[in-house]
Amino acid sequence: MIYIAAVVALLVVGGFGWKLTSRNAYESASYSVLESDDAFEIREYPDLNLAITQAEFDSQGDDGSFMRLFRYIDGNNAQQQKVAMTTPVFMNSRRKDVPGQMGFVIPQKLKEGEIPNPDNAKVQLSERKGGQFAVIRFSGRMNEETVRQAEQKLRAWAAKKDLRLADEAEYAGYDPPWTPGPFRRNEVHIRLSQSL
């Protein structure tokens, strides 16, 4: 009986801990779904404020990019103000002479003049212009191969629907690093060149 009670207690504590550290514990960037088709969606996003830094995409933040952004939201900024963690973390790969980037979404409640300025010159504030995006959702670990395959599927789906997409894609990750692959939420976003 004691063994069963201990197992139940561990499951409850583990479930509570999972809930507090999973994506459900964070504010997520708002959007409207205009069309949905299995793993594919057309979404309308508002303008989003981001804290961004240069990143090598395939490093998964091992190049220090994630920690630079985390220190910024943890109070390493001009106002020494903590900023709530949000989802997703936006990323893109290096393109020609443009380095890859990683970006944290600034919570919506912080208006333009309230967003703390970064102390670290490698962290900048930026705006992700709103608009319509074709999106595919997939699970597993995000790396160059998985996003390449997802992007190909998304472009093929969009082509069947005669949607015109931008050349560049961005990637969105919603989960902490310790989340098991099958439970991870990853996405590829490509801006529509022409709105619906």
Q: What can you tell me about this protein's structure?
A:
The chain has 196 residues and is an alpha+beta fold. The protein folds into two domains: 28-46 and 130-196, 2-Layer Sandwich (Alpha-Beta Plaits), CATH 3.30.70; 50-127, Alpha-Beta Barrel (Multidrug-efflux Transporter 1 Regulator Bmrr, Chain A). The protein is 23% helix and 29% strand. The chain contains three helices and eleven strands; from the N terminus they run αββββαβββββαββ. It has helices spanning 2-21, 65-73, 144-160; strands at 27-28, 32-37, 40-45, 48-54, 86-87, 89-92, 101-105, 123-128, 131-138, 170-173, 186-191. It has a nine-stranded antiparallel sheet, with helices on one face. A two-stranded parallel ribbon has the order 1-5. The model is unreliable at 11-21 (pLDDT under 50).
Summed up:
The protein folds into 2 domains: 28-46 and 130-196, 2-Layer Sandwich (Alpha-Beta Plaits), CATH 3.30.70; 50-127, Multidrug-efflux Transporter 1 Regulator Bmrr, Chain A, CATH 3.20.80.10. It has 3 helices and 11 strands; from the N terminus they run αββββαβββββαββ. The chain has helices at residues 2-21, 65-73, 144-160; strands at 27-28, 32-37, 40-45, 48-54, 86-87, 89-92, 101-105, 123-128, 131-138, 170-173, 186-191.
